[in-house]
Amino acid sequence: MNRIKRKPTHPGKIIMEDYLKPLSITVTEMALSLGVSRKTLSKIINERGAITPDMALRLGRALDTTPDLWMNLQKNYDLWQAEHMSKDWQKVKPLSPEQLHANIQETANNPMNQSGL
Amino acid sequence: MNRIKRKPTHPGKIIMEDYLKPLSITVTEMALSLGVSRKTLSKIINERGAITPDMALRLGRALDTTPDLWMNLQKNYDLWQAEHMSKDWQKVKPLSPEQLHANIQETANNPMNQSGL
DNA sequence: TTACTTGTAACCTAATGGGTTACGCATGTC
DNA sequence: GACATGCGTAACCCATTAGGTTACAAGTAA
């Protein structure tokens, strides 16, 4: 369940450390190559912007990776942020285990169940 | 590389089909339980709203799942949408394989590399 | 009929992605 | 020293979107 992991690396850091630096590509060049403004890429690299699906696709093509890689990095980052920022979600009460587990079995085998799952 | 998969199921459909229906929980009840407005949940269920990180955390608690489950469903959905909507990202030219592969090795072993990776 | 459930429109606020232009700073080059 | 590059970022604009409240019409069940 390891919900207590360290802060995930921001996708922008990966771009910088694993690609731009090793390949000696400037932010300006990369932005041009991706077809986005320098500002957009700069924001991401400085961890002030997020990887959008569109950007994930662009990065995937440019860097020969799956778009999912970038989506996942962003997803993990966002989730960690939300988890540690607002605590409001912790007030949510789990549905009772009886409902969640017992009933699922019941309904699944119950001929009265019309839902057609 | 299977980039040609079918349209992913929207998270809202999962909520409805796998939870609300089997458990006989109404949208109104669930919204209350999650601590969000009925509108917010309704939009998601009718595939007109997205799972935000905050919502993923709420669903995780309420339904005894990982938040990642919901984040992943949304991520796959978003990526598929972006992939099939705008085609602009396809114009992005991959960095040359020489840069992407050869150079990575070079720089990694090159004493001149100052980046300290 | 009456009550409950639901989708959704209308309206408002706050946040966010993306673009352009421009400025100041650091670094490298001639 | 003078000039060019690269970069972060501010200022400003636009479009979209999450989320909330209120309200209405329609469907369903008691």
Automatic annotation (TrEMBL), chains A, B:
> Which InterPro entries does this one have?
Cro/C1-type_HTH (IPR001387), Lambda_DNA-bd_dom_sf (IPR010982), Toxin_antidote_HigA (IPR013430)
Name of this protein = Plasmid maintenance system antidote protein, XRE family
- Keyword check for Magnesium: no
HTH cro/C1-type domain segment(s): 16-70
Q: What keyword terms does UniProt attach to this protein? A: DNA-binding
CDD domains assigned to the protein according to its UniProt record, in alphabetical order: HTH_XRE
| Top-level division of the source organism's lineage | Bacteria
GO MF: DNA binding
